[in-house]
Amino acid sequence: MSPNPTHDSTPTNGLAGSFPADFTFGVATSSFQIEGAVDADGKTPSIWDSFCAEPGRVIDGDTGEVAVDHYRRMPGDVELMRELGMGAYRFSISWPRVQPHGTGPGNAAGIGFYDRLVDELLAAGITPWATLYHWDLPVELEQAGGWPVRETAERFAEYAGIVAEALGDRLRHLITLNEPWCSAFLGYASGIHAPGRRDPAAALAASHHLLLGHGMAVEAIRAAAPDAQVGITLNLYPTDPAGEGEGYADAVRRIDGLSNRWFLDPVFGRGYPADVVADVAHVTDLAFVHDGDTDRIAAPLDFLGVNYYTRHVVAPSAYPGTNAVDFRFRGYPTTATGWEIDPDGLYDVVSRVRDDYPSIPIVLTENGAAFDDEVADDGSVHDPDRVAFLREHLQAAARLLKDGVDLRGYFAWSLMDNFEWAEGYAKRFGIVHVDYATQRRTPKSSALWYAALLREHAGGILGT
Ligand code: IFM
């Protein structure tokens, strides 16, 4: 379990000195991707349990049944983070563990797991950051209509209140939703994520009820845990034209509209962007948006979480009748998921938020890469591509700070290899390698490099 004490030989080149003493460095995970124990202590199935059980949905028929067994190995995983010098840990809470039927009182045994996790983290000197919804909706709520129905937003606020009430005395950083774009559009439009529906109108209704649930959850958290810092995490993409001319500009407008502005605008009190409302008018009249909803969605936040992985480059579609836009590749090096590596995109997307929206502290709640890691004969895992990825993205973060952006933290995705949704266990994002047969954890070179950076940063704080 202990990380190999040898340090990655790639120097950090003084990068730590670019980050202020109170900058938060950590790692992130999510419940379904790591916990396993899918029916322990009263937990009911989530939409991802049932999605995995449907043939053909997930590569190799992989499931979250065992995942990386974190539910049983939690104390060891916290100890590993302590040894690596993590300042913070962003995890997510499984709704069907805490409120198994998606309604009614909390489940003491399920809450107990997160209660112990928070205590364990605090004892290790690691600040807990919890996401309330990282895609594992209780299946009973999906059977009742899922996110396309308004009731789900109300249920989410109730669940948020239960968590804030139980843990808010110690858990001071709460994120309502992780990447609501994915929940709405991958879950209900393309169907490549749970619950696997293909209904664009339902996806747009889902996006609204996710955002409404976010706003209502902020109210519930503020009531139960007034000292908590509350935010939402969006997956944002800088969006560039692949060529010149009106068609390209319109392709950018559409994709930026639905990926970024559809979420940023209402969260920042501007309601839904009129041009995107017009784009989707052939699908829905947005009758699900009730009076007062947009005010609730705009509940004041303490920070905005941004997840950054790559940039979108778009062109008008060569095939009229499709969604009017094609995604293009520029020939940049890619990660194992085929995403182009573009650290400047991190700079661009965060400075765009700074330029176009009211001022708010920003936290990079996810950034990382999958690569085809190999275990050497001596058991070590050298992942120079991931070291370079982290270094270059942290350099972009340092540039943001230098240019005056109010950036407060960076969480590498992910602490350890885990269940990568429809890709199953085929894509490894961890800075710690997991041998899925034995559950042995081995810090990769990237973990050792990141730990060295964190030591330098802590050294700076202590003035040593
Ligand atoms: O693994 C996911 C995570 O759950 C959400 N953000 C993107 C990661 C990599 O695909």
Automatic annotation (TrEMBL):
Output a single Gene Ontology CC term carried by this record: cytosol
Q: Where is the signal peptide?
A: none
Where do the catalytic residues lie?
E179 (proton donor), E366 (nucleophile)
PROSITE patterns associated with the record: GLYCOSYL_HYDROL_F1_1 (PS00572), GLYCOSYL_HYDROL_F1_2 (PS00653)
Q: Name one GO molecular function term.
A: beta-glucosidase activity
User: Which residues does the record give as substrate binding sites?
Assistant: Q33, H134, N178, Y309, W413, E420, W421
The reaction(s) catalysed by this protein are:
Hydrolysis of terminal, non-reducing beta-D-glucosyl residues with release of beta-D-glucose
What does the entry give for GO biological process?
A: cellulose catabolic process
Pfam families for the chain: Glyco_hydro_1
Q: What keywords would UniProt list here?
A: Carbohydrate metabolism, Cellulose degradation, Glycosidase, Hydrolase, Polysaccharide degradation
Q: Which domain of life is it from?
A: Bacteria
Under Enzyme Commission nomenclature, its number is: 3.2.1.21
UniProt record similarity statement: Belongs to the glycosyl hydrolase 1 family.
Which protein are we looking at? Answer: Beta-glucosidase
Protein's organism: Mumia flava
